[in-house]
Write a structure and sequence with these properties.
alpha/beta; Rossmann fold; 7 helices; globular; binds adenosine-5'-diphosphate
Length: 181
Protein backbone atom coordinates (compact mmCIF):
# COMPACT_ATOMS: atom_id res chain seq x y z
CA UNK A 1 0.00 0.00 0.00
CA UNK A 2 1.42 3.38 -1.01
CA UNK A 3 1.02 6.21 1.43
CA UNK A 4 2.72 9.39 2.54
CA UNK A 5 5.52 8.99 5.04
CA UNK A 6 5.34 10.93 8.27
CA UNK A 7 7.12 11.07 11.60
CA UNK A 8 4.80 11.08 14.59
CA UNK A 9 6.92 12.45 17.41
CA UNK A 10 5.68 11.76 20.97
CA UNK A 11 7.30 14.01 23.55
CA UNK A 12 6.57 14.33 27.26
CA UNK A 13 7.73 13.49 30.76
CA UNK A 14 8.63 9.97 31.80
CA UNK A 15 5.38 8.22 32.68
CA UNK A 16 3.23 10.68 30.71
CA UNK A 17 2.02 7.89 28.41
CA UNK A 18 4.19 8.10 25.27
CA UNK A 19 4.90 4.37 25.04
CA UNK A 20 1.36 3.31 25.91
CA UNK A 21 -0.29 5.58 23.35
CA UNK A 22 2.29 4.96 20.63
CA UNK A 23 1.95 1.16 20.95
CA UNK A 24 -1.78 1.39 20.47
CA UNK A 25 -1.45 3.82 17.55
CA UNK A 26 1.08 1.44 16.00
CA UNK A 27 -1.31 -1.51 16.34
CA UNK A 28 -4.23 0.43 14.89
CA UNK A 29 -2.21 1.64 11.89
CA UNK A 30 -0.75 -1.81 11.20
CA UNK A 31 -4.21 -3.34 11.35
CA UNK A 32 -5.14 -0.97 8.55
CA UNK A 33 -2.18 -2.05 6.44
CA UNK A 34 0.09 0.95 6.95
CA UNK A 35 3.86 0.51 6.96
CA UNK A 36 4.93 1.49 10.47
CA UNK A 37 8.26 1.61 12.30
CA UNK A 38 8.75 2.49 15.95
CA UNK A 39 11.75 4.22 17.46
CA UNK A 40 11.35 4.08 21.22
CA UNK A 41 13.79 6.19 23.22
CA UNK A 42 14.46 3.50 25.82
CA UNK A 43 15.06 0.83 23.18
CA UNK A 44 17.19 3.06 20.96
CA UNK A 45 19.46 3.82 23.90
CA UNK A 46 20.43 0.11 23.95
CA UNK A 47 21.92 0.18 20.42
CA UNK A 48 21.72 3.22 18.09
CA UNK A 49 22.59 5.68 20.83
CA UNK A 50 24.24 3.33 23.30
CA UNK A 51 26.76 5.03 25.56
CA UNK A 52 25.11 8.43 25.47
CA UNK A 53 24.19 9.97 28.81
CA UNK A 54 21.75 12.62 29.95
CA UNK A 55 23.66 15.88 29.63
CA UNK A 56 22.10 18.40 27.25
CA UNK A 57 24.73 17.52 24.63
CA UNK A 58 24.09 13.78 24.90
CA UNK A 59 20.33 14.17 24.94
CA UNK A 60 20.54 16.33 21.82
CA UNK A 61 22.81 13.77 20.13
CA UNK A 62 20.37 11.00 21.06
CA UNK A 63 17.52 12.93 19.45
CA UNK A 64 19.59 13.88 16.41
CA UNK A 65 20.34 10.21 15.68
CA UNK A 66 16.72 9.18 16.15
CA UNK A 67 15.75 12.06 13.88
CA UNK A 68 18.24 10.93 11.24
CA UNK A 69 16.74 7.44 11.05
CA UNK A 70 13.20 8.79 11.22
CA UNK A 71 14.00 11.04 8.25
CA UNK A 72 15.32 8.16 6.12
CA UNK A 73 12.22 6.10 6.80
CA UNK A 74 9.77 8.95 6.40
CA UNK A 75 11.06 9.88 2.96
CA UNK A 76 10.53 6.25 1.95
CA UNK A 77 6.85 6.32 2.77
CA UNK A 78 6.95 4.83 6.25
CA UNK A 79 4.90 6.05 9.18
CA UNK A 80 7.53 6.48 11.88
CA UNK A 81 6.49 6.57 15.50
CA UNK A 82 9.07 8.13 17.81
CA UNK A 83 8.55 8.00 21.52
CA UNK A 84 11.23 9.83 23.48
CA UNK A 85 11.16 12.37 26.30
CA UNK A 86 13.05 14.77 23.97
CA UNK A 87 13.04 17.56 26.54
CA UNK A 88 14.64 20.31 24.45
CA UNK A 89 12.46 22.37 22.12
CA UNK A 90 15.23 23.56 19.82
CA UNK A 91 16.35 20.09 18.76
CA UNK A 92 12.74 18.93 18.24
CA UNK A 93 12.21 21.94 15.97
CA UNK A 94 15.48 21.21 14.15
CA UNK A 95 14.29 17.66 13.39
CA UNK A 96 10.86 18.96 12.39
CA UNK A 97 12.44 21.34 9.86
CA UNK A 98 14.62 18.57 8.42
CA UNK A 99 11.86 15.96 8.08
CA UNK A 100 9.01 18.19 6.95
CA UNK A 101 6.25 15.60 7.34
CA UNK A 102 6.33 15.86 11.09
CA UNK A 103 3.55 15.64 13.63
CA UNK A 104 4.41 16.55 17.19
CA UNK A 105 2.27 14.91 19.86
CA UNK A 106 2.64 16.49 23.28
CA UNK A 107 1.81 13.78 25.79
CA UNK A 108 0.92 15.99 28.69
CA UNK A 109 0.33 14.99 32.28
CA UNK A 110 1.41 17.05 35.30
CA UNK A 111 4.62 15.98 36.99
CA UNK A 112 2.64 14.99 40.12
CA UNK A 113 0.57 12.53 38.07
CA UNK A 114 3.62 11.03 36.32
CA UNK A 115 5.35 10.77 39.66
CA UNK A 116 2.37 9.10 41.30
CA UNK A 117 2.24 6.56 38.45
CA UNK A 118 6.00 5.99 38.67
CA UNK A 119 5.69 3.24 36.04
CA UNK A 120 9.39 2.33 36.20
CA UNK A 121 10.14 3.40 39.77
CA UNK A 122 12.51 6.06 38.46
CA UNK A 123 10.92 9.08 40.13
CA UNK A 124 11.42 7.48 43.53
CA UNK A 125 15.08 6.94 42.72
CA UNK A 126 15.44 10.48 41.37
CA UNK A 127 13.87 11.94 44.54
CA UNK A 128 16.25 9.83 46.61
CA UNK A 129 19.17 11.22 44.63
CA UNK A 130 20.05 7.81 43.20
CA UNK A 131 19.49 9.08 39.66
CA UNK A 132 20.76 12.50 38.64
CA UNK A 133 19.61 14.70 35.77
CA UNK A 134 16.11 13.22 35.77
CA UNK A 135 13.69 15.17 33.57
CA UNK A 136 11.14 17.07 35.64
CA UNK A 137 13.06 16.63 38.88
CA UNK A 138 16.52 18.12 38.38
CA UNK A 139 16.59 18.48 34.60
CA UNK A 140 14.43 20.66 32.37
CA UNK A 141 11.48 19.79 30.16
CA UNK A 142 10.50 22.35 27.54
CA UNK A 143 6.90 21.71 26.40
CA UNK A 144 6.04 22.19 22.74
CA UNK A 145 4.58 25.65 22.08
CA UNK A 146 2.49 24.62 19.11
CA UNK A 147 2.10 20.84 18.90
CA UNK A 148 -0.17 19.44 16.20
CA UNK A 149 -1.77 17.19 18.83
CA UNK A 150 -1.93 17.28 22.61
CA UNK A 151 -2.99 14.33 24.74
CA UNK A 152 -3.94 15.16 28.32
CA UNK A 153 -3.44 11.74 29.81
CA UNK A 154 -4.38 12.91 33.32
CA UNK A 155 -7.97 13.51 32.18
CA UNK A 156 -8.34 11.35 29.04
CA UNK A 157 -8.65 7.59 28.76
CA UNK A 158 -6.08 5.77 26.66
CA UNK A 159 -8.73 5.22 23.99
CA UNK A 160 -9.50 8.95 23.88
CA UNK A 161 -5.82 9.80 23.52
CA UNK A 162 -5.36 7.23 20.74
CA UNK A 163 -8.42 8.52 18.88
CA UNK A 164 -7.09 12.06 19.15
CA UNK A 165 -3.83 11.02 17.50
CA UNK A 166 -5.51 9.01 14.72
CA UNK A 167 -8.08 11.75 13.99
CA UNK A 168 -5.29 14.33 14.01
CA UNK A 169 -3.30 12.32 11.46
CA UNK A 170 -6.39 11.98 9.31
CA UNK A 171 -7.12 15.69 9.49
CA UNK A 172 -3.55 16.48 8.48
CA UNK A 173 -3.97 14.21 5.45
CA UNK A 174 -1.51 11.46 6.42
CA UNK A 175 -3.98 8.62 6.85
CA UNK A 176 -7.56 7.77 6.08
CA UNK A 177 -9.59 5.97 8.69
CA UNK A 178 -12.46 3.55 8.23
CA UNK A 179 -15.82 5.33 8.23
CA UNK A 180 -16.93 3.29 11.23
CA UNK A 181 -14.24 2.71 13.85
P1 LIG B 1 6.15 7.06 28.99
O1 LIG B 1 6.37 6.18 27.79
O2 LIG B 1 5.71 8.45 28.61
O3 LIG B 1 7.30 7.06 29.94
P2 LIG B 1 4.28 5.01 29.80
O4 LIG B 1 3.43 4.85 28.57
O5 LIG B 1 5.36 4.01 30.04
O6 LIG B 1 4.89 6.50 29.80
O7 LIG B 1 3.34 5.05 31.11
C1 LIG B 1 2.14 5.79 31.15
C2 LIG B 1 1.19 5.23 32.21
O8 LIG B 1 0.02 6.04 32.28
C3 LIG B 1 0.73 3.82 31.91
O9 LIG B 1 0.72 3.10 33.12
C4 LIG B 1 -0.70 4.03 31.36
O10 LIG B 1 -1.54 2.93 31.59
C5 LIG B 1 -1.17 5.26 32.15
N1 LIG B 1 -2.22 6.05 31.47
C6 LIG B 1 -3.34 6.52 32.03
N2 LIG B 1 -4.10 7.22 31.15
C7 LIG B 1 -3.44 7.20 30.00
C8 LIG B 1 -3.70 7.77 28.71
N3 LIG B 1 -4.80 8.50 28.45
N4 LIG B 1 -2.78 7.57 27.75
C9 LIG B 1 -1.67 6.86 28.02
N5 LIG B 1 -1.35 6.31 29.19
C10 LIG B 1 -2.23 6.48 30.20
Amino acid sequence: MEHKGVTIWFTGLSGAGKTTISREVEARLRAQGYKVEVLDGDVVRTHLTKGLGYSKEDRDENIRRIGFVAHLLTRNGVIVIVSAISPYRAIRDEIRAKIGNFVEVYVNAPLEVCEARDVKGLYKKARAGEIKMFTGIDDPYEPPLNPEIECRTDIETLEESVEKVLRGLEKLGYISLPVVS
